[in-house]
């Protein structure tokens, strides 16, 4: 997927002519043009999503681009939201099957969970610490459930193909892993500047283009 045509369509829709300068935070890698082959009509758009208004806007833009690209090129475009729970505790662990109470299940497959560890509840020592860890883990997963469900609800408005990923660990590393796993064409983030700390962390040799939110959205 080439960046300029999709941004040209977006520019035409909102009456702007400077979106490339505003939105391209990391340019597309040179190898991205041939990674799928010219005969494959499909694309993957990844969105770093955390439930914030900025990430909500990034997801909305990604869904719009996916919809317009499908209409213009007759290609299959999949939007994928990635929520990363950054771990503050070593060996954080929880039971992923007993978290949601009277709520829809997590919108992700077990294969999308980057880390899986088991909480040992039978240890006689440190019971209070384990109980606190279990409680915090359950809260984290319930919050992840809510955030991914929010993303799915927004994506359904566009009636397009959608997937979600729940990852644990370093934000930049996990985003890169999903981008590589899904052979993504674009990563959308809810930031407006290439000087944002996350852009520096991703690095210049990121495997796909990274787009942010245009400044004109706030005008």
What can you see in these coordinates?
With 219 residues, this protein is of the alpha/beta class. The protein is built from six helices and six strands, in the order ααββαβαβαβαβ. A six-stranded mixed β-sheet has the order 1-6-5-2-3-4, sandwiched between helices.
Task: Looking at this protein, list some descriptive labels.
single chain; 219 residues; alpha/beta; six-stranded mixed β-sheet; 39% helix
Structure summary:
With about 220 residues, the protein is α/β, with parallel strands linked by helices.
Mean pLDDT: 76
| Strand numbers in spatial order across the main sheet | 1-6-5-2-3-4
What is the approximate shape? globular
Number of strands: 6
Task: Indicate the topology.
Elements: H1 3-14, H2 19-23, E1 24-26, E2 42-48, H3 53-73, E3 76-85, H4 127-156, E4 161-168, H5 171-181, E5 186-188, H6 197-202, E6 209-211
Parallel strand pairs: 2-3, 2-5, 3-4, 5-6
Antiparallel strand pairs: 1-6
């Amino acid at each position: 997927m080439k960046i300029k045509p999709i941004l040209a369509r977006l520019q035409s829709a909102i009456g702007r002519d400077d979106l490339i300068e505003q939105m391209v935070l990391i340019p597309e890698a040179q190898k991205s043009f041939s990674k799928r082959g010219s005969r494959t009509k499909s694309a993957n758009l990844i969105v770093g999503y955390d439930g914030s208004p900025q990430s909500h806007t990034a997801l909305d833009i990604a869904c719009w681009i996916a919809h317009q690209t499908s209409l213009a090129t007759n290609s299959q475009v999949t939007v994928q939201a990635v929520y990363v729970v950054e771990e503050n505790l070593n060996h954080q662990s929880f039971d992923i099957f007993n978290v949601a109470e009277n709520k829809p299940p997590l919108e992700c497959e077990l294969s999308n969970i980057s880390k899986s560890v088991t909480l040992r509840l039978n240890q006689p020592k440190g019971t209070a610490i384990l109980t606190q860890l279990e409680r915090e883990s359950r809260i984290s997963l319930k919050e992840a459930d809510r955030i991914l469900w929010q993303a799915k609800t927004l994506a359904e408005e566009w009636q397009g193909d959608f997937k979600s990923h729940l990852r644990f660990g370093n934000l930049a590393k996990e985003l890169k892993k999903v981008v590589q796993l899904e052979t993504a064409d674009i990563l959308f983030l809810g930031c407006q500047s290439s000087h944002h700390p996350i852009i520096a962390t991703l690095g210049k040799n990121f495997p796909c283009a990274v787009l942010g939110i245009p400044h004109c959205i706030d005008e």
